[in-house]
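sanity check both lines:
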Amino acid sequence: MYTENALARAIQDEYVNSAGKSVEQIAADAQEVLAKNRICLIREFPLDPDRYLEFLGHFGEPLKNYSSLSALAKTDPHPQINRVKYKKKAEGAQSVHYVAGGLRPHSARSWRSPRPSHFAMLMVEPGWREVPAGERGESVVVGWEDLFRRLAERDGEVFQEHFARLSSTPITFEANNVREELSGLPLLYPLPDARGPYDVGVRLKQDLSEKILGIREQIPAFEEYQRSLDYLLEESADEASFACFPMESGDLLLLDNHRFAHGRLKIVGEYLVDGESRTNNRELWSVTVSPRAGAEAPAEVVAEQAAPAEGQDDLVAVCAELQGELDALIAGTGGGAAAQSLDTAVASLKEVEQRNVSSVQLVALSPS
């Protein structure tokens, strides 16, 4: 169905075979493919939580899973691994990892700061294959740069308007059940190692169209922004953009979380056979990976780039105070007190200046 997608072919053609290799060698081979394609398929990976996390540790810090950060039921194989498996709904809220149906393409931890660098999926059990293609819970990947390039060619100025709006409007939103530090980046944000004008990071929550209704007051020109978001959601959910192929047990897909969205086609959770309910045993282990402490991430780059401009407000206030003290000295009024205040103002000025210089230096040191 979507296996003829160029990205799907590249992923499958350039896979890493992990059979008989150490975790270090598998990671080294995957690094080479990631450097070229930003996404890598590893086949025949052992279904072992510890080795899975050891492998991902070569790419950053595996984050705690959703259940460990929420009040939802915990049935995961490890505190850093999300088990994605259909489960009959009990009373109350249920994790999205346990539901049937499809999942529109989205980013891992779209709300989080710092932005997670990678997302991984390890297929444990493919589940039912006797149901029609497109109803087996096939994993989906969308490459943002390829999508934006095609939209730019097709829609011209219309695309450019949406792209500019989504790239320039900061937005902060929360997860539904998880509480983490929140990002204030635009949905489309610059990357320090971008390869072209449309090679940007994207943070997209699958239900963001509903989520923004509760934060509309923070979004300037909300209706125009809403149209741009709807455009992005609609185009990213177009099956013509999907890279999709069957994942077998032991297939591990590791992708750049800035540059790719992931999702799933419809999955049939259960059906009746001779009056007895059968449950799909499809099981996938997903892990979100964040940059290690001290590693530069796009969120920090953007924050540092913005810091000098933000510091201008402090600088203006200190200068105004300094000017007031100078006027008082010149007028000869309150000489002793004015001189003391002047020393304080000068110290404040130096502090603000140093803060701005440090921010500029950090930006200058970031990769171009």
User: Anything to note?
Assistant: The CA atoms of residues 97 and 280 lie 13 Å apart. The longest strand covers residues 118-125. The two ends are 39 Å apart (CA to CA). DSSP finds nine helices and 15 strands in the chain.
